[in-house]
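JOB MANIFEST
job_type = single_chain_structure
chain_count = 1
residues = 514
[input]
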Amino acid sequence: MRRHVAELAAIRERVLAGPSEPATAAQKAKGKLTVRERIELLLDEGSFREVEPLRRHRATGFGLEAKRPYTDGVVTGWGTVEGRTVFVYAHDFRIFGGALGEAHATKIHKIMDMAIAAGAPLVSLNDGAGARIQEGVTALAGYGGIFQRNTKASGVIPQISVMLGPCAGGAAYSPALTDFVFMVRETSQMFITGPDVVRAVTGEEITQNGLGGADVHAETSGVCHFAYDDEETCLEEVRYLLSMLPSNNRETPPAHDCADPADRTCQALLDLVPVDGNRPYDMHQVIEELVDDGDFLEVHERWARNIICALARLDGKVVGIVANQPQALAGVLDIEASEKAARFVQMCDAFNIPIVTLLDVPGFLPGVDQEHGGIIRHGAKLLYAYCNATVPRISLILRKAYGGAYIVMDSQSIGADLTYAWPTNEIAVMGAEGAANVIFRRQIAAAEDPEAMRTRMVKEYKAELMHPYYAAERGLVDDVIDPAQTRQVLIDSLAMLAGKHADRPARKHGNPPQ
C-alpha cells in the first residue's frame, strides 16, 4: 500500500507541476498567470478540491497519441469564496492551447452538472483556442453540451465567465449565455471570426484587440460587463461580485452587518439635484449618498452610459439599482440603455434581488436611427422585464418622468410595489413647452403676441398638470418625501416587502420581445 501511495503522490506532483517549463515561461511572457495561480486567487486559500485531475484524452491520430497530458487542458473542481461553495473550471493554455476535446468537454460537463445539482455558482476561467481540430466533430459536440448546460443553469445558479485569453468562434457563445462577463485588457479577446477572416472577406485591417478586445466589448458591443487592467484585480472583483449574489435562485443574497445607520439623513441630496430639469448632474453621487458607505458595483459601467445599473447594499441587504444618468444624453432611454437595463432587471429578479429604480427621464431618444434600429421592440424588452419581475420593486422620481419612458421605468401602473417622489418631481406626457405647443397651438397662433401667449400657457399647464402633488393626489405616487429622508424610506419599505410573494400564471415560459 505504501508503494501505491507513493506512486499516487508522484503522479499528483506531476499534475500540479503542469506541462513543461518552456510552456509556463511562454504563458508568463504574455503577462498571464498559470491556471492554478488563477484558481488560488479566485478561491479562499486552501479550499480548492479538484475533480478528475488524472483525466487524459483517448484520441489517436494526428500526433495526439504521443501526447496525453493529465487534466487534458482544463482544471475543474470546487472551493469557497468567503466561505460559500463555488464551482470552477479553468482552461490551461499551456496544454493544447486550452483547446477543447472530448475528455476536456466531458470534464466541463461534469462540473457544470455538479454546480447545478449543488445549487452553487459556476465560474469559468477562459483561456482557450477553441475546438481541438484533431478531434473533429467530437470537439464541436462538446461545445453543444456546454451551451445546453449554460441554458439549463440560467436563472438557477449565477454563472460568471472570466476571459483571460483568446475566445474565438462558437466558443464565444458560452460566455454570452452566462450572467456576467469579465475581461482583461490586452490579453483577452472575443470574436466569432478573427482578423484574418475579416480581412479575407471584407478587406478590413484590424488587430485582435481592435476587433474583440476588452475595451471594445466594454464600450461598444456591450458583451463585456467588467474590464480590468490585470488578472489579479479582475479575479478580486469576481470575488466581490460573488459576495453580492445568492448561491442559487432559492436563496437571497448574503446580508452583511452594516455600520452605516439606516436612519442616516442625506442632506447632500438637497444640493446635488438641481430643480431646473434642464441642468445635468451626476446620478452616481445620488447613489453614493443613498447606499451603505457609498459603496456600489456598477454593471456595464462604460456601455449605454445614459442608464446606470448597479448592485449595492441598503442596511446590509443587497439591492439592484436602475437609474437614469442626466449627464449622458440627458438620461433618455435608447436602444442600448433599454437592453442594458432589461437584462439587469431580469438578473435581479432571477436571483431574488429587490430593485430600486431612480427616475429622471425626459423620454425615449428620438431619431431615424433609433426608430429603424427597433427602439419599439428594444424598449419593450425593458417593459417586459419590469412587468415580469416579482421581487420587491420600489421606484423614486427625483425630478422629471415624461411620456412612455416614465411608464417603462417601473411606474406603479406596471407593478411597482411602492412609488415615491421628491417635491421637485414632474410627471407628464411630455414637457410643458411641448405640451403647450400641442394643446394651445391655435390660441398661440391667433394671439397678438404669440410668445407671451405661449409663456402663459406653459405656466398654466405646469400649474394644473405638472405640479409635484398631481400624481400623488391621484394615487399614482404613494408619497412625496423629503429627499434627505430617502435612505430611511427605502430601507423601511424594503424591510416591509421582504416577505413579498407573487403568483405567476401557469405557463411554460413567456415570449419576450427580441
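[summary]
The chain has a mean pLDDT of 90.
The two ends are 62 Å apart (CA to CA).
exit_status = 0
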